[in-house]
DNA sequence: AGGAGATTAGATGCAGTCGA
DNA sequence: TCGACTGCATCTAATCTCCT
């Protein structure tokens, strides 16, 4: 029997819900085998509640919202592209997934398609992750998102149900949480419904540390090692290298089992080198590996990250932020197609610089000649090679002040609009109330009117009116008096007759 | 100390197996 | 069905050991 067979057997034998929590396991020394086979304590409800509590504190609410809107934007864009029928590996727009930079390891390492699906399922769930646990997605779209172009879904379905059995472990302080990545899977026709465990949702929804992975890259790679290496590099992109990590750590990150490639030479030839080669040809980033040795043994690895010179994706990978996009649309009147054309043809920094200059010259300083064609002006400015479109530092400062003021004005405008709307609603409510009061008053018999009026005059609501008009109970009812109307309506409201 | 020979990490080719 | 994965055999060269 080959190693592969044993692996599958192990996978089938692992009792899915048993290894839930290992409270005192030393995170650094516990081997995968120990965690998988030993009977460990079951996660109690209190534990789960405490964990959820910690992950749902109020200061995280803002984080949830910003993460969700970012997720929503990317998800929405991917849906549009899916409908357009462009293969995901060829789309120009960047589709980013915000991922937790947290050590997560799988008891049985995920295969290539499963790793891709893992990201895809989080990507789909991201926009509503803090409030929902069950998510739905069409298999067509899912298949597109991971670039799985097979006509029948048999393999996709098999991968999903296998994923259901895959256990993942998340260190949390000195605890280890062990959970399924997806709890329930229901495939209804060509729609997949899946449930992500509550605390995984929370963890993903508001990560302490995060990094972005590209869904285009996710779909693109042919080897799981390349995908894993890509994510490892993405996670460390901010510092330009992964830093030296032990071989064990690296093997774990790559999803190399303890029995696989026990010799470094094999690991190098079959995992590291091929992954680097594929990354170089397909990826937007690339790395070179440094060996750390003890005597002549390679014991640790460091990947130094470089921008991939082969990749045409570099200029594409950056994209206009929403504020800039809005500015191009609203200030310069460019349409979506024109913006897309510009964004594809020029580096993002150039576009930002030029839009600054144009904004300063034509909007802030209101140059005499009105601009007839913003698009051609913008394009020729972008193409300019004689440095005719530059701002001095003081102009830049002026511009940023202008932007700030305008933003505040917009904010103020927004507040005023909201205030007006509120006032309008209050007026409408008052009007509504006074109409109801009149209706009620008209249909009331004469005798009851006097009784109600006397009750009003002696009530807290009518007190001021009675004192102001020097009235006493028994006086002639006058509900049309402007001073009386509002407080009389309040009184009736309290009696719940209107 | 230094060199010959032994040992072993690492590289490579090939072939069988299995996953996508 | 094709190509990726994996194991085996063998080669190369770095490093160690032991002896003079």
From TrEMBL:
One of its GO terms (molecular function) is DNA-directed DNA polymerase activity. GO terms for biological process: DNA replication initiation. Pfam families: Rep3_C (PF21205), Rep3_N (PF01051). The keyword RNA-binding does not apply. This is Initiator RepB protein. Gene3D superfamilies: Winged helix-like DNA-binding domain superfamily/Winged helix DNA-binding domain. It comes from Caballeronia fortuita. Keywords: Coiled coil.
């Amino acid at each position: 029997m080959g190693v592969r067979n044993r692996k599958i057997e192990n996978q089938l034998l692992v009792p899915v819900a048993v290894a839930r929590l290992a409270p005192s396991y030393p995170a650094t020394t516990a081997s995968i085998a120990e965690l998988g086979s030993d009977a460990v304590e079951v996660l109690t409800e209190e534990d789960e509640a405490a964990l959820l509590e910690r992950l749902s504190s109020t200061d995280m609410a803002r984080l949830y919202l910003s993460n969700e809107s970012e997720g929503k934007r990317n998800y929405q864009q991917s849906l549009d592209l899916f409908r357009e029928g462009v293969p995901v590996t060829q789309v120009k727009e960047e589709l980013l997934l915000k991922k937790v930079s947290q050590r997560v390891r799988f008891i049985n390492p995920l295969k290539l398609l499963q790793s891709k699906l893992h990201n895809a399922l989080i990507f789909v769930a991201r926009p509503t992750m803090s409030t929902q646990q069950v998510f739905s997605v069409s298999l067509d779209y899912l298949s597109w998102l991971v670039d799985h172009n097979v006509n029948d879904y048999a393999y996709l379905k098999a991968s999903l149900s296998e994923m259901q059995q895959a256990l993942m472990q998340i260190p949390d302080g000195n605890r280890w949480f062990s959970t399924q990545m997806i709890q329930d899977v229901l495939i209804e026709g060509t729609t997949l419904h899946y449930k992500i465990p509550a605390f995984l949702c929370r963890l993903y929804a508001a990560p302490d540390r995060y990094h972005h992975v590209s869904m285009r890259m996710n779909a693109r790679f042919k080897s799981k090692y390349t995908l894993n290496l890509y994510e490892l590099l993405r996670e460390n992109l901010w510092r330009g290298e992964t830093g030296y990590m032990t071989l064990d750590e690296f093997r774990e990150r790559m999803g190399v089992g303890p029995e696989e490639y026990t010799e470094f030479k094999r690991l190098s030839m079959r995992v590291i080198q091929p992954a680097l080669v594929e990354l170089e040809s397909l990826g937007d980033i690339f790395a070179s590996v440094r060996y750390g040795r003890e005597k002549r043994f390679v014991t640790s690895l460091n990947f130094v990250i470089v921008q991939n010179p082969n990749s045409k994706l570099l200029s594409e990978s950056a994209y206009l932020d929403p504020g800039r996009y809005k500015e191009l649309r609203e200030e310069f009147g460019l349409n979506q197609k024109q913006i897309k054309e510009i964004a594809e043809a020029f580096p993002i920094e150039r576009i930002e610089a030029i839009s600054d200059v144009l904004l300063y010259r034509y909007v802030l300083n209101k140059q005499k000649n009105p601009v007839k064609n913003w698009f051609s002006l913008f394009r020729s400015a972008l193409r300019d090679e004689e440095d005719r479109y530059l701002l001095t530092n003081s102009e830049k400062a002026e511009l940023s002040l202008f932007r700030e003021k305008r933003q505040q004005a917009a904010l103020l405008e927004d507040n005023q609009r909201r205030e007006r709307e509120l006032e309008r609603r209050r007026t409408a409510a008052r009007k509504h109330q006074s109409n109801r009061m009149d209706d009620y008053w008209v249909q009331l018999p004469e005798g009851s009117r006097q009784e109600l009026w006397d009750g009003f005059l002696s009530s807290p609501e009518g007190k001021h009116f009675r004192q102001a008009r020097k009235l006493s109970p028994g006086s002639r009812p006058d509900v049309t008096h402007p001073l009386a109307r509002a407080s009389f309506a309040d009184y009736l409201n309290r009696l719940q007759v209107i």
